Amino acid sequence: MSGGLFDRCRLPVIGAPMFMVSRPALVIAQCRAGIIGAFPALNARSTGQLDGWLHEIRAALGQGDAPFAVNQILHRSNDRAAADLEVIVRHEVPVVITSLSNPAPVVEAVHRYGGTVLHDVIDTRHARKALDDGVDGLVALCAGAGGNTGRHNPFALVAGIREFHSGLLGLAGGISTGQGIAAACALGADFAYMGTRFIASSEADAPKAYKDAVVAAGIDDVVCTRAVTGVPASFLKASLAAAGLDADRLPGADGNMDFGAGGAGKAWRDIWSAGQSVAGVRGVATAAAIVDELETGFHEGRRRLSGAIKRPRCTFTAEG
Ligand SMILES: Cc1cc2nc3c(=O)[nH]c(=O)nc-3n(C[C@H](O)[C@H](O)[C@H](O)COP(=O)(O)O)c2cc1C
Prior knowledge:
Layout: E1 13-15, H1 24-33, E2 36-40, H2 47-60, E3 68-74, H3 81-90, E4 95-100, H4 104-112, E5 116-121, H5 124-132, E6 137-141, E7 147-148, H6 154-162, E8 168-172, H7 178-187, E9 191-194, H8 208-216, E10 222-225, E11 233-236, H9 237-242, H10 263-269, H11 287-305
Helix pairs in contact: 1-2, 1-11, 2-3, 7-11
The structure holds flavin mononucleotide (FMN).
Residues 16-19, 21, 40, 71, 73, 99, 120, 141, 145-147, 172-175, 193-197, 273-275, 277 line the site of flavin mononucleotide (FMN).
GO molecular function: monooxygenase activity
Pfam families: NMO
Keywords: Flavoprotein, FMN, Monooxygenase, Oxidoreductase
């Protein structure tokens, strides 16, 4: 896409794609509020519905709104990937976020119309591989993230990726405040990638009880486990308990939990995912109100970094 990715944004933020939670209403609200909104293509029940959603989003957004993004899960279990990509190309989706395996075919198709491809990575090996495959930028998925989480510390992973990548880089995992966005930028990231913060938004397609559980939860109420899906992912302990499971005594780490037929759907629908950033979620609000609050915090964070706001033992200026 021409110009900078965040030229039409109020904040350097992507509202991260969330399975079963991000649908057109949230994406449109995020883009109107001034951040990039995103949803997983697989949230649409079919490729035909994806086509309809892209029409809806295009029709709702104006020239002044932020661009939007679609997430493509590149896993062999996704038998819609090729058909969905055709629809994405037809709509010239401005930003495509790829997850899991080889993004090269997506890169080729999206670059043909001038779109941007970002790939999320959990370590430097995957980061180098994605760059070799031609992606335009990376999202560093760090420890504590909602959904399938990373395991590395954000300070270390951003520094590690910056050793060999000077291009576009986002930071994901644990960011719930504007101060966190400013901190991500101070670390060397170009943008923050925030999922959990938007589960408790009015426009998110999550049941009220899920949103309330995110609001009620603190950092210790989130558990990272392989037991639910087979890969490390973050879940609310309360939803595990409601499913009759003890978060401290989960079955083996091989994803062998028996959910019966349609287990994967139950894993996300009934066992609720959220990251450690629940700690910063105080209530349900519209996406616009959340972005307003993030902007206030972002500017405060920047003032603090510049030394204008001083606190005992919390400033790095010599006289502080
Ligand atoms: C409920 C939920 C569902 C998610 N589903 C997806 C998904 O379908 N595809 C994806 O790439 N990431 C998914 N994620 C991960 C987010 O895109 C993002 O990486 C993560 O939320 C960032 O960490 P945070 O939650 O601490 O902000 C999901 C996260 C949550 C909380």
